[in-house]
Amino acid sequence: MERSFIMIKPDGVQRNLVGEVIRRFETKGFTLVGLKLVSVSRDLAEKHYGVHKERPFFGGLVDFICSGPVVAMVWQGDGVVASARKLIGATNPLNAEPGTIRGDFGVSVGRNIIHGSDAIETAQTEIKLWFSDSELVSWEPCNKAWLYE
Fold it and tell me: Does the predicted TM-score (pTM) go above 0.85?
């Protein structure tokens, strides 16, 4: 079963959107298999955003993600990576569709509430970066038969 890494950024935590974000993923039918509130170290932030290291906004990204607690999560389900991207919406909230997390709650690119893995391979890398195997729970929800054929 496919897994994706989802992170509610400091602005989402500060704005009390944690429950709303979790509700949307649960309502969609995905299974939560990892969850923790984290004060992000600079080292972890730099590793997470390493693909942007040479970009001028890298330092700001790292500073922001370290500025307050984040909620790190792993969600599981068929097509969860692509579906999560649709639930999240465009990176720039001004371009995000209403009904998406960023479309409903985001105000600017630098404060766009949430991060989601952009590909299956990225998800695997991010999950290993943020969670140990012992922090992930394998379980089967009782409603699985109502979600999948």
Answer: yes
